[in-house]
Design brief:
The strands form 2 sheets. Strands 1-2-3-4-5 form a 5-stranded mixed β-sheet, with helices on one face. It has helices spanning 26-34, 39-57, 106-113, 117-124, 152-159, 163-170; strands at residues 4-10, 15-20, 66-71, 74-80, 86-88, 95-99, 136-145, 182-186. The protein has 190 residues and is of the alpha+beta class.
Length: 190
């Protein structure tokens, strides 16, 4: 079974958009894709799978300039056909906001959301660890749209993150969710 389950073809730009099969666990896929081990190999596999799909669904001899890789509605990578070069693209980097409280440290906040300190520094353009009370700190995250079978517990388990970190980032007072509600899920680090 292919990692991709559907596609869109843009004739004008010679661009094939491929969608990662929703049965793939997003957290597992993103760790494998973004992890330091075999990073190039994973990207090569994405490109090879996209090329294979193109050969099956497009007319023979159709030229493809780029492959856009999407997971649900999120664009996670653009793969150039020329020389197999890869450039990553995240559509409007998703971030949640956390208001710094008294005695909060960067380390404490990173641990609370299970993200690494460097990611928080980078997304907030911080040179050091200095934080100020009341400062709005961005926290890197995924976006998740609630579906019928979702519960906060199931979502937390799917992304391997605590329910409390999801509650904190989304300012939730309860575990009750609404279908179609968009949740920010902290990008958990290993």
């Amino acid at each position: 079974m292919s990692i991709y389950y559907k596609y869109d073809w843009d004739e004008e730009n010679k661009e094939l958009t491929v969608y990662i099969n929703p049965t793939e666990a997003f957290y597992e896929f993103s760790v494998e894709y973004a992890g330091n081990h075999d990073k190039l190999s994973k990207r090569k596999n994405l490109l090879d799978a996209a090329r294979k799909l193109a050969s099956e669904v497009l007319s023979k001899g159709t030229e493809v300039n780029t492959y856009r890789v999407k997971f649900q509605q999120f664009l996670i990578a653009v793969l150039d056909e020329k020389n197999g070069a890869t450039r990553e693209l995240i559509e409007g980097p998703a971030c949640g906001n956390y208001k710094v409280k008294q005695n909060d440290s960067l380390k404490d906040i990173a641990q609370m959301f299970s993200v690494d300190e460097d990611s928080i520094r980078k997304v907030n353009q911080l040179d050091g660890d200095t934080l100020f009370i009341g400062m709005n700190l961005k926290v890197p995250c995924y976006l998740h749209t609630v579906v019928t079978s979702d519960s906060l517990l199931k979502i937390a388990q799917r992304y391997d993150i605590s329910r409390e970190s999801i509650r904190q980032l989304n300012h939730l007072d309860t575990d009750c969710l609404k279908i179609g509600q968009e949740l920010k899920i902290p990008k958990r680090t290993q």
